Amino acid sequence: MTLTERLNQYEKLMRLDKPIGILLLLWPTLWGIWFAASGHPDVLVLWIFVLGTVLMRSAGCVINDYADRDFDAHVARTRERPLAAGRVSGKEALLLAAGLAGVAFLLILPLNKLVLLLSIPAVLLAASYPYTKRFFAIPQAYLGIAFGFGIPMAYAAIQSHIPLEAWLLLLANVFWSVAYDTEYAMVDRDDDVRIGIKTSALTFGRFDVTAIMLCYALTLALLGYVGWRLGRGGWFYAGLGVAALLAAYHYTLIRGRDRALCFKAFLHNNWLGAAVFAGLVLDYAHISTYLCGLSDFCN
Predict the structure, then answer these.
(1) Could you tell me if 150 and 32 are in contact, meaning their C-beta atoms sit under 8 angstroms apart?
(2) Which among 253, 101, 240, 259 has a CA at the least distance from the CA of 176?
(3) Which of 81, 70, 66, 94 is nearest to 17 (CA)?
(4) Section 211-234 average pLDDT
């Protein structure tokens, strides 16, 4: 392969051509940053976490494909992935993943010691998740911890400690991850049975749709409780309301268990995460504007 062709394979291996994973990882991280910083995050911290999200999601995709390279070759949707198709070697993949994780670690060096310590379990979670599909009945819950670990790291970076709210937000992300990744797993249900890996779609069985909707409800309930604890207002709850309507729309897509519609619901979760974040941003901006106006009036 030419250099351009090889870089194109690396791009596909990192899923940079499919940014949905980056967005699903980014939204909960941004929730954590905005809550931790009371709506006014430091620009440097914000960019460190945004870039770190892209790098670690890319590294996680590489490790996932390395772990699943033998399985992917037997699944129609994944058999053309670079590792499964033999266009990238296992050694190349490991070196690429290590390089991405190394750059992500360099990014957090300006932050405090607690963030550096938390980066160790963050890397271990990302690297070990693909292997949980061999033995864990609901690996999507493990994914939720891995995808949400930016939340306690954000609190550590901004507040230098991790309060209860951070762990509640992480738990909310676990339920959200189980919801959207079960929708994703419903697409590959038959292939997963044939090759012998475990997914929540198989574990939930005929209750898969019910379980997904319950996870959505728990996600929104936990987010609402965190917002209540932190004194959030109408804009935040309006964002949760929009997210609830989107979850209801997902029900109309998945209730028939059509593969294409289940995949559409999975992709559509980007808008659910965005709705929560938009409500959070608007709420803090509204409160800030109100306080500034009150200050001017008082002066």
Answers:
(1) yes
(2) 240
(3) 81
(4) 97
Q: Is 289 exposed, middle or buried (0-12, 13-18, 19+ CB in 10 A)?
A: exposed
Provide the angle, in degrees to the nearest 10, between the axes of the packed helices 20-36 and 259-298: 30
In one letter, which amino acid is 297? F
Angle, CA 101 vertex, CA 96 and CA 105 arms, to 5°: 145
Count of CB atoms situated within 10 Å of the CB of 293: 10
pLDDT digits (tens, 9 = 90+) for 234-289: 999 999 999 999 999 999 999 999 999 999 999 999 999 999 999 999 999 976 55
pTM value? Answer: 0.91
For helices 20-36 and 139-148, give the axis angle rounded to 10 degrees.
Answer: 50
Rounded mean pLDDT of 136-161?
A: 94
Secondary structure, 3-state, the chain: CCHHHHHHHHHHHCCCCCCHHHHHHHHHHHHHHHHHCCCCCCHHHHHHHHHHHHHHHHHHHHHHHHHCHHHHCCCCCCCCCCCCCCCCCHHHHHHHHHHHHHHHHHHHCCCCHHHHHHHHHHHHHHHHHHHHCCCCCCHHHHHHHHHHCHHHHHHHHHHCCCCHHHHHHHHHHHHHHHHHHHHHHHHCHHHHHHHCCCCHHHHHHHHHHHHHHHHHHHHHHHHHHHHHHCCCCHHHHHHHHHHHHHHHHHHHHHCCCCHHHHHHHHHHHHHHHHHHHHHHHHHHHHHHHHHHHHHHHHC
CA distance 218 to 51: 29
CB atoms under 10 Å from CB of 274, counted, come to 18
68 φ, ψ (degrees, to nearest 5): -100, 10
Tokens representing residue 251 in the block: 């029900």
